[in-house]
Amino acid sequence: MRPVLHLILFALCPALFAAKPNIILIYTDDHGHADLGIHGVVNDIKTPHLDALARSGVVATNGYSTAPQCVPSRGGVMTGRFQGRFDLDNNGSALDGFNKETTIATRLQNAGYATAQFGKWHLGPTEAITKHGFKHVFSQNAQRPFSANITLDGKDRPMADLPPTEYHLEGCSKAAASIIERYRDQPFFLYVAYRAPHTPLDAPKRYMDRFPGEMPERRRAALAMLSAIDDGVGLITSTLKKHNLTEKTLIFLIGDNGAPLKIHKVDSPLQGDPGGWDGSLNTPLNGEKGMLSEGGISTPFLIAYPGTIPGGQTYAHPVTALDFAATASAVASIGDRSAFDGINLLPHLTGENKAPPHDALFWRWMAQSAVREGNWKLLRGGEREYLYNLSTDREEKHNLAAQHPEIATRLRSKLKTWADTLNPPGMALGPMASTWNDYFDHYLEGKTIAPRAEQPTTTASETKGWEARSGKLTAKDGLLILTPDKADKPTFITKSKLKLAGPVTAQITLKTAATGQGAIAWRLNDDKDFLPANRLTFPLQTTPDWQTHTLQIPTTGRIIHVRVHLPPGAAEFRTLDFTSALK
């Protein structure tokens, strides 16, 4: 009887699997609110497949990310819990708390789902993504080798670096379509995290050519990258349709945060400014990435589940990226409501529940915090405080705190009560940095902020003694920013008057505009010049992620002068530490 029973169960498996819907999360990167055709805000965007996805489901016009920055927002969407509960407040936070959390991928994998991650991860080493619930990994987010345990056609391989054979946005889409083909007869969860339109702006010419005419080149590049995403979404949805999976698949599309405009939307050279404006737009919302104003956290937000959620909806009640995990868990019938800070949106989107999903939404990021209750929003930045009625002022132009002190007081108390449950507690994690004071001055106070070239010159003390050669070195928000005189010429930074007894450890954390070779050169107290033998090289990649290089300088002499050489282009430094082993 056992073999017969085994055959019967095996035959029933497809039917059992089919009872659980497939789930896809498409996550875009630094994608401004304006840049979906369905929104009708700008006329230069072309997103026909995303618009079709929106028409098949819901456009959440008040859909929010949990943070105005990459790492915390990704931690929130992956866990369904506000990231401040596990001390993941910003891009510089340690990942210890996140690593102890249970992701929605783990929950779905434990429930029998095939799980796969594509594109940008930004929550630790990409080779360790499988530890967070993903069976399959294809983490390409640039034109460089990337961690993968599947090939482009969805076949298994050992986890190791895979050289890029496709433009990264196309590669992620094709690999995702291959996994749909592979698992079409059982439930799957795909997390497709496109690194776009985040800088570096690297769209191939064939996409750039789709947007002729006069416009900033950075705008053209962003439109091109978003067009590549749109093609990919078209490939994914057509593959679902091919296998009659459209009505068996729940799809969310969410932006991780608003577009970085850098206030002035400077059209700097695409290869010369890795951290500039990404070409996307937050219109008509006020503010940008790095702010808890609407422009920083209200992002493109679509939900489609044809046959279950009626299509053609515009949903105005506030929803959050935290709702994804709660909804996915519920439709997969594995829900533990207490495990999530989000809400299962399905009853609200089907019309079964007419009430707003949330009594209030809360945010905390660095020195900023905010609460939205109905149409009222209280926004704090350091000691500043703003109250907006978003039903009449979505652009956050009119601070009503003085006119409605009782509302501001009530919302402040509500925000404080929530913030005190976080780790660490509090409505702010420190004072406002100068950058965000400038942003608040510009967007919320209407003050004129000088463009970068007009900012005061940085002093040597602000750069901690480092100086640039063939370029300019400035300090901003704890970072050292190198701007070369000529984008196509190599440059270096240098520091003298050192007294470091060897051996010396160098630790450098940076981002560069160009892939190539970096080098550390040093001069000892007896050397009249830099000797060719006193040089260590290390590889550099063009990537939105911080790269950390730790090198041991093999000398027993006393180092008095160092240089850090870079390939052509701009760079940002977060860490520049040279430490002697002899104290």
Q: What this model shows, in words?
A:
With 583 residues, the chain is of the alpha+beta class. The chain has three domains: 2-313, Alkaline Phosphatase, subunit A (3-Layer(aba) Sandwich), CATH 3.40.720; 364-445, Arylsulfatase, C-terminal domain, CATH 3.30.1120.10; 461-580, Sandwich (Jelly Rolls), CATH 2.60.120. The protein contains 13 helices and 27 strands. It has an eight-stranded mixed sheet with strand order 5-4-8-1-9-10-2-11, with helices on both faces. Strands 17, 20, 21, 23, 24 and 26 form a six-stranded antiparallel sheet that branches. A five-stranded antiparallel sheet has the order 18-19-27-22-25, with no helix packed on it. The longest helix is centred in the middle third of the chain and has 26 residues, at 217-242. The N and C termini lie far apart (75 Å).
| Total discrete domains | 3
- Strand composition percent: 25-35%
* Spans where pLDDT lies below 50 across 5 or more residues: 1-18
Number of helices: 13
Distance between the termini: 75 Å
How many strand segments?
Answer: 27
How would you summarize this macromolecular structure in one to three sentences?
This protein is an alpha+beta fold and 583 residues long.
List descriptors.
Alkaline Phosphatase, subunit A, alpha+beta, Arylsulfatase, C-terminal domain, 24% helix, 583 residues, disordered N terminus, Jelly Rolls
